[in-house]
Amino acid sequence: MILDNDFPPDPRVENEARVLIDAGMEVHLFAFSYSKDFVKQEIYKGIHVHRFYCSKLLYKLSALAYTFPFYHILLKKPIAEFIRTVGCHVVHIHDVQVARAVFMIKSKIDFKVVLDLHENRPEIMKFYKHVRSFPWKLLIYPSIWKKREEEYISKSDGVVVVTKHAKEEIVNRTEIAQDKIVVAPNVVEEDYASSQSIDSTIVDRYQDNFVLLYLGDTSERRGLITAVKAVEKLKSSIQNIKLVVVGKSSFDSQLAQLVESLKITEQVDFLGWQQSDLFPSYIAASNICISPLERNIHHDTTYANKLFQYMALGGVLLVSDCTAQENLVNETETGMVFKDRSVDDFVLKTLELFNDEAKRSKCAEQGKLAVAQKYHWNKTGQELVEYYKKRLIS
User: Fold this and answer.
1) pTM, two decimal places
2) Omega before 9 cis (within 30°)?
3) Tens digit of pLDDT for each residue in 344-389?
4) Greatest distance between any 2 Cα atoms in the chain
């Protein structure tokens, strides 16, 4: 596996590696270290991790990976050395950013390639702040990234995506065979809920509130503007309402200004990033767990990881109508769906859940049941294993 990022943590990379290891395969992972003080090689949960120092220059060049060739040229030698050293039969590339370097190597070393698309990078890049800002908007072209993605999808022996909707989008766009793509969603481990501990101080802190919880990145496209505006309208009907935001981004100052201008500072808690082992405690303290993503091609074809964390721990979901998450919530009956960016619809659906405790209880149980029966790695990971055995190592 090739990951142009630090490891750990990366739940998707770890889960995929471990399910392949459990099936009898040997997994070696090439990963970065952003610190000069690092362990070059170690075995982490059965994964043979090989680290390469990523300088500030190399990190900055990654944004220009498909504008200029320098990023791939610099990575070609260490990745080739890694591949030769471990004798890879299959090279599993995590996301398109580093793909060009691997295909440069493939012209001289024989191995099969799997391209694992964690997201629709060309589409989501359009919303990145730095891509939309001067001078980067003159140097970074999502259209070129899209062209490269399609090229490497075509050249790969296999492709992994996170939802069936992503698979459909790629098949329609590139006209490749459907059986070339396997779906591996970012679900949780089977024992995720039972292995978590709850911090009672967090639960007690919010015991007198009706809590809307948001976990994750808070950038503009995540839809928190809708949630904040909805809280201003909801506070008269739900006097103890509290929007709890666990996460951060460069957009936080704008959100804070909006909260202040609406005079709802008492109704909103911005907590910044918290340790991931505290997420279950915030979910336990919540009444509704939200994912108010604004619709775009990327959001329509992916799941936020937090959805399955919410569900596993009995969270009641309120999500925008991005296709993938809308279908998930409707299929599992774990909550309600509102029209993206519609403050009024967010308010309406929140009030419906607030006024129907029995519905909330049923949604909570349905979420736990859906994870236990279907949406956990022990089950979905087997599709990846069978795909490997059938297509890549037979």
Assistant:
1) 0.93
2) yes
3) 999 999 999 999 999 999 999 999 999 999 999 989 999 999 999 9
4) 67
